[in-house]
Write the structure tokens for this entry.
Amino acid sequence: MASISATYSDDSLLVANYIDGNEGALELLIEKHQQRIFNFIFSKIHDRELAEDIFQETFFKVIRTLKNGVYNEEGKFLPWVMRIAHNLVIDYFRKHNRLPRYETNEEFDIFQFIGNAEVSAEEALIESQIVADLQKLILELPEDQREVLMMRIYKDMSFKEIAENTGVSINTALGRMRYAVINLRKLVASNNIILTT
């Protein structure tokens, strides 16, 4: 717990120094977190050159945000950068038609619980309870929907791979995923589960 708080504090100080004009502070932040952020991107993209491009674009966005004075992440620098990297990965997949175009501005987005951000012990406990609750609800879904959801979220399979493994078309796999998410939302609402930390 203390080490995580110290990490946030150190990052916060470096961010403040960079905003105050110390360019070296950003270099320290990049050096400190680059391995974790790059590994996260590469684990999703599986292409080193492309992962490097997305890594650089991530920090271009970081720099723009900090320079524009709109950074307000309360010291949680790494989780914030991870979200930027995650969004850029999703943007890449969407541009190349490798992900369905889900709207995530509804009541909740189940993908938000698949993350690599550092969290406090309390937040980790709450998140683990949320994940446990979601896993129980997933078991209540129809088998075909549950199968697609498990392959997509827990095995990180593409919809092409899911279609091949289940012997259906990509459109059918997408449809099952869509209904799985809709039904999961209904189950969350009916079971009064709070999906926030």
Notes: The radius of gyration is 19 Å. The chain has two domains: 2-95, 111-190.
